[in-house]
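Aim 2, interim progress. The first record below pairs a target sequence with its structure tokens.
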Amino acid sequence: MHPLHATLLAFPTALFPAALLADITYLNSSEMQWSNFAAWLNAGALVFGGLVLLWGLVSAARGRMSWAYPVLLAVMWIAGLVNAFHHSRDGWSSVGMTGLVLSIVSAVAVLIAGWLGFSTLGMGRRA
């Protein structure tokens, strides 16, 4: 796999779990700034995740990888997008159980995709 793809994948791999932790912290503290942190982390993960998804779709269409990887990336990106819309609601109800579940889905999907990409698609192999 191309090193630029691995670099782009690092951003959503870090940002989606960080958004999940910010959501958990907000639900435990009711400090509004944590919801804002989660919204911005989610937005950053969507930007880079969209680039990774596009790259994965093109690579899978060209037969360079299995379709499992871009499907996981699509699940990650769609759940993150719905979560971004959910976070844009009124301040106090911006997270809730729905936001937390969407954050969990995004974080788990990107971690599995990152593991799959690193272990089976050659990101971890030395040239």
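The second target in this work package is listed in the same format:
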Amino acid sequence: MQMTFEATTSATLWFSSWHFMGWSYWGSCVGLFLFCLLHEFLTTYRSKVKQAISSQTSKQTGAANQQGSNTEQLLPRSQASSSLQLWHSALYAINIAFSYLLMLAVMTYNVGYFFVVVLGLATGHLLFQLPGLVSSELSDVCCVQR
């Protein structure tokens, strides 16, 4: 296994049968870039789903407080809230899988793949994570403190 960066237009990406050379290498770079954009889009979308869950939870808590409940109580989850939480968990799993695939692309130690992944994630962040649009959740989900 290679352990130093190499600046070539030949690389194997994820599977031994996916060995790209010449023009197919540049096509794989475009594909990686688009994959990074998709990753950032899903991160933003997952954050919006999380905000919707929080909004529903706060509405339920507010309704319970209006009924005169001074003590904290467990509220039954609505079916919509449960399905949103299930959807959020599925998006989280997809996001984690994408993160690991991008990490493996960088670990090919191919300079082109490294720069394409960094540029793709930065471009996706610029396009989808506009201020005020989503919470300050990080794209690198493996490092987010919960």
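The beta strands are 10-12, 19-21. This observation will shape the mutagenesis plan for the next reporting period.
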